Amino acid sequence: MELKLVSTTLTVFLLIISVTVTTADYVRPQPRETLQFPWKSKPHSYPQQVHISLAGEKHMRVSWITDDNSSPSVVEYGTFPGRYSSMAEGESTSYNYLFYTSGKIHHTVIGPLEHDTVYFYKCGQQGPEFQLKTPPAQFPVTFAVAGDLGQTGWTKSTLEHIDLCKYDVHLLPGDLSYADYMQHRWDTFGELVQPLASARPWMVTQGNHEKEYIPLLQGGFASYNARWKMPSEESGSTSNLYYSFEVAGVHIIMLGSYADYDKHSDQYNWLKADLLKVDRKKTPWLLVLLHVPWYNSNEAHQNEGDGMMQAMEPLLYAASVDLVFSGHVHAYERSNRVNNRRPDSCGPVHITIGDGGNKEGLARKYKNPKPDWSVFREASFGHGELKIVNATHAFWSWHRNDDDEPVRSDQVWITSLVNSGCLAEKSHEFRKILMAP
Ligand SMILES: *[C@@H]1O[C@H](CO)[C@@H](O)[C@H](O)[C@H]1NC(C)=O
Question: Known catalytic residue: 301?
């Protein structure tokens, strides 16, 4: 009884926090209802919330949760169903959040794996067999991109549309579950995305909804870091909030909008070191993801990315980054190649794709006139597909969830900077920034 009262008071307190955090002065129309997940009885050792992520050259991390604390962190796998030629043992963790205690969270790295190959696997020697496909070694390679997912009727429709696209890797620029302090909503999100995230690697970076920080009571990113372990160690980073990975001729850098980013920060120094390692002969394409957009002509979240942009844009420009994806704004916007707020043929294309389907609805108001760097903007739910055809050409398309049909609403061929002369032109500047103390 007493506990119930405490927990009710706490819920009210948390509601006040989340309302003040999420309220903004623009009108967000017709979000779809939050999905309900009926409780299903499962054996305690049954693997739940299975998802996979790339973990260094030819390796994949399999993550799942069991209610049973003694369940082994073992993955059996092979290229034939039901016949597992290999086995790997990993690690596990768990966390407490106020009155919530997570299940046993397993992370097991498997490999070396062949490229472009279907593997069958089983987690913790229990439950059903899962299937995954590894990305190809070479072009073409296709990425599905959608941020600010949440778990509403719109999320469901976005996931259904992504499932129809033949993609190799999912890229998520922050805001996953919208659990917003209610930890069991992380569990339902894990179940919701399992059909997709257990089959193709999901590479994520953090958004503001992952923070779940409560002064004096709870540190930030506890749930996110425990559940969505990304290859930071594999990429020389000391934080799960920023890391990089390579797939089929593409080097992808996941930055943390909510980690320190000034010139003396760990993140900035790691970024310099990571960029130094990029070999454009091996990975002609260079992509960056982060949560808070730097180029945004929506009224929502105006100028929020300015600090990070000021610190890091010169470095990304000097490194000739091809594309920057962000989320946060619940709408879609694509820029020209841009730098320092002006169209620049040696700058990256910026794409805001925070329209995955979260409960807060769309950000419909745009600033007018449209800035000259902005090419296409629309407030609809949807997802993007980036098909990198070869070292120089990629086809980008944005698919609106219109009437539950995936409508391709924006599409463009993007050419990489690799043969543009930009790299040579900027090499001196790049060295200078890299060598700066
Ligand atoms: C790369 O793909 C584009 C688009 O399909 C094509 O026009 C171009 O010739 C290709 N380049 C090479 C070197 O194959």
Answer: yes
Alpha-carbon distance of 235 to 228, in angstroms, equals 16
What fold, for 48-133?
Immunoglobulin-like (2.60.40)
Q: Which residues pair with 152 in a beta bridge?
A: 34
Best CA proximity match to 64, nearest among 125, 144, 16: 125
105 Cβ partners below 8 Å, 6+ apart?
Answer: 63, 64, 65, 92, 93, 94, 95, 226, 227
For the chain, give every residue range classified as CATH 2.60.40.380. 48-133
With a 6 Å cutoff on the Cβ, whether 390 touches ligand 1 is yes
Domain 141-435, CATH: 3.60.21.10
d(CA 383, CA 360) in angstroms, rounded, equals 17
Q: Single out the catalytic residue among 291, 301, 330, 399.
A: 301
Distance 333 CA to ligand 1 centre (A): 26
- Where in the chain is CATH 3.60.21.10? 141-435
How much distance in Å is there from the Cα of 419 to the middle of ligand 1?
13
**Distance of CA 376 from the midpoint of ligand 1 (Å):** 25
Of 124, 95, 131, 120, nearest in space to 107 by CA: 124
User: Which residue from 386, 389, 411 has its CB within 8 A of the most atoms of ligand 1, so it is best to mutate?
Assistant: 389
Lowest mean pLDDT among 76-80, 253-257, 403-407, 415-419: 403-407
Nearest-CA residue for atom 3 of ligand 1: 393
Burial of 331 (0-12, 13-18, 19+ CB in 10 A): buried
Ligand 1 contact, 140 CB (< 6 A): no
Q: What is the pLDDT of residues 347-380, one digit of tens each?
A: 999 999 999 999 999 999 999 999 999 999 999 9
Q: Is the pLDDT of residue 183 over 80?
A: yes
Is the CB of 392 inside a 6 Å radius of any atom of ligand 1? Answer: yes
Interval between CA 139 and ligand 1 midpoint (Å): 11
Residues 16-71 pLDDT 10s: 444 434 433 434 447 788 898 887 778 889 999 999 999 999 999 999 999 999 99
The residue whose CA is least distant from atom 14 of ligand 1 is 390
CA distance 328 to 341: 19
**Rounded-to-integer distance, Cα 360 and Cα 392, Å:** 38
The verdict on the CB of residue 393 being under 6 Å from ligand 1 is: yes
Q: State pTM to two decimals.
A: 0.92
The reported pLDDT for the residue numbered 28 is 42
Q: Facing residues of 411 across strands?
A: 397
Question: Looking at residue 412, what is its pLDDT?
Answer: 97
